Amino acid sequence: MTAVIVEAVRTPVGRRNGGLSTVHPADLSAVVLNALVERTGIDPSVVEDVIWGCVQQVGDQANDIARNAVLAAGWPETVPGVTVDRQCGSSQQALNFAVASVAAGHYDVVIAGGVESMSRVPMGSSGTFEGSPYSPAFMERYNGVKPNQGVGAEAIAEKWGLTRSDLDKFAASSHERAAAAQDAGLFEAQIIPVTTPDGTVISRDEGIRRGTSEESLAKLKPVFKADGVIHAGNASQISDGASALLIMSEEAAARHGLNPIARIHTVAVVGDDPVVMLTAPIPATEKVLAKSGLALEDIGVFEVNEAFASVPLAWLKEIGADPEKVNPNGGAIALGHPLGGSGGRILTDMIKHMQVNNLRYGLQTMCEGGGQANATILELIN
């Protein structure tokens, strides 16, 4: 069976302690779940599973937030939910699991997406309890080095000869592109406004900093090395947000009278060096292109998550893609990176960009904790 995407939505991305910080992540998830129902007219009872990405599964995000989101949305108790963690790529992985389940005939209708409220459940919360995720055997294998993403981002910059100027120029461009996309109304079709508990309506991404320049970024101090090149301005923002995609078999979409937007052409997932951690998008892209039978030139848009500016810049050097096709509406440096929701946020933006520009193929990849990366190629259905 062929899996197709029928609709894709997201919340605005809120800044840390910003407009969405007062919204419980289950309620934030419910917003996008109900938006899929409103846009497509499907009865929630036909949804056979909700596969939800979330990284810090403690506190407000504990106890299977996928199931709690379904219930917070007011959906029938018969609709199940499962929460997955592939670190930053959790909601992209949720999509890939959903697609595989439909292709195998297990589901006809499933929702994939994710959420992260980094204001309410800070990054690293799941690792604050007694003990360590890195066992003695792990530490012995990697000579006692505990992985650190920021240190890895510095190592990537050094390995690929990326200067502070290179990174800051890229970061400024991310803000410039995101601001231009926001001004042109390109995000409006994908964003579902969120009403906070005090009645405030949040309808726009909060992280875009207009007027950001290489010169202004040059004033920021490096974070991970005294003489380093990585700082808060060329790294992804700490954010809050949720995203959701409705996946169906082609037959189910026809039964429900719905027109699919895109089909999932090819997916891949790889592992790479867990200490440097952030290089896996390179082999993931190579693998998914090889599996797909497509050439680099066939891809009309690339989304490479901007965890740190050094990640997409190293990817560009190795893959050789046209920089103008990469993150055309800005990325996580400008828009933010709500960990468990980012994969779905980026997929949603890529799908809408493909529709507006009539691009047949789009490729998304993300670096993930543990030295992993997902890659997904979507094909637009005209």
Automatic annotation (TrEMBL):
It holds the Pfam family Thiolase_N. Residues 259-379 form the Thiolase C-terminal domain. SUPFAM superfamilies: Thiolase-like (SSF53901). Residues 4-251 form the Thiolase N-terminal domain. Keywords: Acyltransferase, Transferase. The keyword Transferase applies. The keyword Acyltransferase applies. NCBIfam families: AcCoA-C-Actrans. Belongs to the thiolase-like superfamily. Thiolase family. This is Thiolase family protein. It comes from Rhodococcus baikonurensis.
